[in-house]
Amino acid sequence: MAKFNLDLLKRLCEAPGIPGREDPIRAVVVEEMRPLIDELTVDIMGNVVGVKKGSGGPRVMIAAHIDEIGFVVKHIDDQGFIRLQQMGGFDPRALFAQRVLVHGFSGKVLRGAVIPAAKPIHLMDPGEAKQLKIDDYFVDLGLPADEVTASVEIGDMVTMDRTLESNGTSVISKSLDDRVGVYVMIEAIREMSSSNAEIIAVATSQEEVGVRGAITAAYTAEPEISIALDVTLAMDIPGASPESAISRLGKGPAIKIFDSSHLTHPKLVRHVRDVAEEKNIPYQLEILPRGGTDASAMQLSRGGSAAITLSIPCRYVHTVNETSNIEDINGTVDLLAAYLEAAGTRSYGYEVN
User: Fold this and answer.
1) Is there a catalytic annotation at residue 207?
2) Suppose 64 and one of 44, 111, 182, 261 were both cysteines; which one would form an S-S bond, judging by CB atoms 3.0 to 4.6 Å apart?
3) Quick one: which of 110, 64, 103, 106 has its CA closest to 87?
């Protein structure tokens, strides 16, 4: 059974890295992956590619993305207030009165408040409050304009300002999407024993803006079997009906059946389920009406591959309070490690009658 490594997950989640600016988080991943695999490279897209050699088994590509949703500086006005260009999907309601870190070109990291350009509630007439958009927000660094422009310029990275915390049962953090998937990939490779498969473990870049890293990495790797690791919605909360829960915290990893980006391979799903049942790993089946993962790119690359997504249930996705259950995380590590040991023992091809 996997042992939870809180320190590693905390370092992964707290490292900054929006799409295309993943250098800090990439450094953490390289450090952790290097002793676990046979070959390690970083490609032109910024994907970290680790290869664990096999002995005649299939090529299995694992993908978990390192980028987090965030922003770049779009404009600095003459008072030093910053406007933002989002990188990835935000619900504007989740940004009200949050704090961010502006990673300036000067090397300084400046903390600021995200505030809507609107009157405070004390001065509004009844019914005057409006639905906010991303463009309504600005960042106040609390500095004179000349000090802001001495450290910050257009295009600088902006990330949400939150740490990872744990109560022993669950974790809450920004960027569990998808640093927890990266964590699962690293820990499963650490946990697994021998496998005949050639394992290509890829910490992918730029997933939040169109699975871009996975597209190029899969084209290079030419996998026969593809496994994406990502979070999925856990809607086991007030305001959601039981049939729309998608997944539930504490019920184990979710084996994806469907999302709007790919259809998982039914024979691969059956094999993963059989492995879970053989190892007594609780799991749940997932149908996600909208959304997608790196599996969409891997499934369609070159001649295609048998693809699946293993999901970690997560409440409040794409907010600073993403929440996952520790046993679900451990169970996903165990399931991936067990499947990698069994990879190649079944064929997923279709017969011509």
Assistant:
1) yes
2) 182
3) 103
Compute φ and ψ for 278, nearest 5 degrees.
-65, -35
128: containing domain: 70-160
Does some domain include residue 121? yes
178 with 136, same domain: the answer is: no
Residue 167 lies in a domain: no
- CB 34: neighbour CB atoms within 10 A? 12
DSSP class of 193: -
| Averaged pLDDT for residues 208-225 | 96
In which band, very low, low, confident or very high, does the pLDDT at 350 lie, cut at 50, 70 and 90? confident
Residues 6+ apart with CB under 8 A from 127: none
The string of pLDDT tens digits covering residues 263-301 is: 999 999 999 999 999 999 999 999 999 999 999 999 999
Q: Is the pLDDT of residue 124 over 80?
A: no
How many of the other CB atoms lie within 10 Å of CB of 280? Answer: 7
- pLDDT tens-digit series, residues 3-19: 999 999 999 999 999 99
Are 214 and 281 contained in the same domain? Answer: yes
Q: Total structural domains in the chain? A: 2
Number of H helices, E strands in the chain: 8, 17
Is residue 168 in some structural domain?
A: no
DSSP string, 11-76: HHHHS---TT--HHHHHHHHHHHGGGSSEEEE-TT--EEEEE--SS--EEEEEEE----EEEEEEE
**Are residues 64 and 80 located together in one domain of the fold?**
no
Question: Is there a contact between 343 and 196 (Cβ–Cβ < 8 Å)?
Answer: yes
* Sign of the C-alpha dihedral computed for residues 321, 205, 12 and 308 taken in this order: positive
Same domain, 184 and 296: yes
- pTM, entire model: 0.95
Report if residue 352 sits inside a domain: no
- Choose among 309, 271, 270, 316: nearest CA to 288: 309
Question: Are 231 and 269 in a shared domain?
Answer: yes
What is the domain-level CATH number for residue 182? 3.40.630.10
Instruction: For residues 30 and 129, state if they share a domain.
Output: no
Q: Tell me: cis bond preceding 178? Omega within 30 of 0 counts.
A: yes
Q: Which residues pair with 309 in a beta bridge?
A: 228
